[in-house]
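Changelog note: in this version the structure field was regenerated for every chain. One regenerated record is shown below for reference.
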Amino acid sequence: MPSPTPILATKLYMPPLRPEVVSRPRLLERLNEGLRRHLVLISAPAGFGKTTLVSQWLALIERPAAWLSLDEGDNDPARFLTYLVAALQTIAAPVGEGVLGVLQSPQPPPPEAILTTLLNDLTSISDQFVLVFDDYHVIDAKAIDQALTFLLEHLPPHMHLVIATREDPPLPLARLRAGGRMTEVRAADLRFTPSEAAAFLNQVMGLRLSAQDIAALERRTEGWIAGLQLAALSLQGQPDAASFITSFTGSHHFVMDYLLEEVLEQQPESVQAFLLRTSILERLCGPLCDAILLDSSASGQATLELLDRANLFIIPLDNERHWYRYHHLFADLLRQRLRQSIPGDAESQVNELHIRASQWFEDNGLYLEAFRHAAAAHEIERAERLMGGKGIPRHFRGAVTTLLDWLESLPAIVLNSRPSLWWRHASLLLVIGQTTGVEEKLQAAEAAMQGAEEDDETRNLVGAIAEARATLALTRYQVEPMLVQSRRALEYLHPDNQSMRATAHWTLGVAHMFQGDRAAARRAYTEAIALSQAAGDIFTIILATIGLGNVQEADNQLYLAAETYRRVLQMASDQPLQIINEAHLGLARILYKWNDLDAAEKHGRQSLNLARQYESVIDRFIISEVFLARLKLAAGDVDGAADLLAQAGQSARQQNFVYRLPDVAAVQVLVLLRQGNLAAAAHLAQAHELRLIQARVHLAQGDTSAALALLESWRDLMEAKGWQDELLKVMVLQAVALQAHGEKDKAVHLLVEALALAEPGGFVRLFVDEGPPMAYLLSEAAIQSIMLDYTGKLLAVFKAEEQECEDTSSQPAIQPLLEPLSQRELEVLHLIAQGLSNQEMCERLFLALDTVKGHNRKIFGKLQVERRTEAVARARELGLL
């Protein structure tokens, strides 16, 4: 699996309350009222005490609470959702376990899909709980706003959302307000009243102001808490408080600038230096500050604790007081003052601070943060080295977005001076499934290399560019460029560059498979696996192992291929990466061939779900839909198969996936034959030049001579190519055609050859799908005592399906449940179909929550489903709704 980006646990801590805090019962009551609604919105400018109020409230209500402090890095949807899951796991550890792997993949699914899974998981939490998003104003991504809207619209009744923000988020607030689903706390509510201002200034801040001075200061600040705090800090040590307060005028911004200057100037020089130089950090801890300041005379941890005790705009991020952050507004102003306070070349000195921070983060295994500071210091070489290291998981979209943002910020002159950066930009775009602009960046890399001396480094870059082109060609199914560029990559890549050489062998293997050279593909995949294992590149190991399974399956080594596909699923563990959709589909195909139709459908649907999550290479879902249509046909659901194929064909045409149309057409012809529409079947088979399918059409038309002629030529071609899977298929169909042509002995003889080839792989459906003509031939073989164990097994399947048809001829189309639903379970089922939540069902049926959940489990078990939507669909099939 790709290494996940480390979760900063400090983002999940609710800021602890200080020993002395102003009691605000009127606001606490307002928040308590919010527990009867979906959303509590606390919207006010900076410094109005939003975070403190929520922390105070949560400490009193004694309900589980998840906290997420947002920052600008959370504008990436994958990162936002990753932290959302991590926050919820502080309440219930199992929540979202299956989601995190998806978010670490190159092309995560749409946020709605992730949230649907997450909402289903949240039903496992029985208690009422609160989720807090603090500082939501930093979010400036439409996708995240849409995801939050989706979450609000589907919020379970035992979950309450709190958003603290400086500005109203672009959510459907009017609709929530009109529907009575939102409680609002605004700046007018948050302003300190005179009594609250008095408590804050004299009790919390330790001043001894008169009631008259407090009232004047409260009026001047209009109850703005940050303004009061800044004023109080400036007042400490002032000999004439009344005169200071009288001169305290101006807008918030001017007052803030003035007071910050007053506060800074009143601090000892050493504290001022500490504040300014550590302001480059998003989060601070003692050892990190020591590494930046290089000041042995003062301890970073001691200084942080001093600032904390002095209420100097520093916020502890954990209960151990290890990590802190500055108030955002305070940090912004400190950074501005930092450059103003440095004599001489301020830029180089600030860059030096960033370099020290980068080194500390790298030494402590926080590579993404190390990269960010290297980028801020304009240390191109260092940033590129960190970007290319193993510490940053390049298959986690959140990390890739950070790298791409930096690359896109670099001017062309910098990129031209380091051509490898052009290549990295192109390759990272491919990682997230974006192909637009890739070739242009590769060409820019080559142009920048013109005239460079050829050495190991430049040759390796030539190979890396070639491999990027091979991958780009793969996304477009361009076989010849894949072969040419993969071979060029292997020619130029440095022998020690095992990871990229592994990828080149993988793309070479895919090209060979497209060509039909399966032996060459097997060799390429085997080499790719060996190299990627040596490099520790799990992503390429998975890709190459799936490729090897494809070759084994094509060579009729079904047991070996199934083991290979299962090994892939083990490597992926419970992380549903999109790339393993091929392993699920391969396993589904094999299970179908073994006649394990239920397991085949399970893996087929898992394949379809994962394939639909791709953003660019989205044609994979069409293959899964074609397979599921084939399953429906085997189960006798001809109309269902036809509908699914029509949908797949429409998608292929709309999205210009013309190379998938023959796959769709092959099964559509089988459907048309089953429907008796021979003319349409013949036309479709001819249009797509489907040789085997054309032979079936000839047989259906009674033209056995034409079928045999076509099959003979096709068999010769398959034998020449050595394609074992296609050879076996044509032999089975030849046997059926010979029987129809009146040559029973030849048919049985050929069937025996086919049985000998098929038995090691355990093929079942290959014969059963041919229907009664094959059953007759197998009976003839059994009479002659030919391969009795195998023919007996196949004939037993025919008999079971025949018996099932007889049983269903006088029964409803859908079999009744083995264990029928009770009357109460039917009531619950109807409420599920109406969309009621568990809590709503409790109120409707006057039952305890655990009792309703118990009924749900029994209903799901009897219907053999896992989710509400599946239960409703199954119940409708059974006529229960």
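Spot check on this record: The chain has 47 helices and eight strands. The first helix runs from residue 25 to 34.
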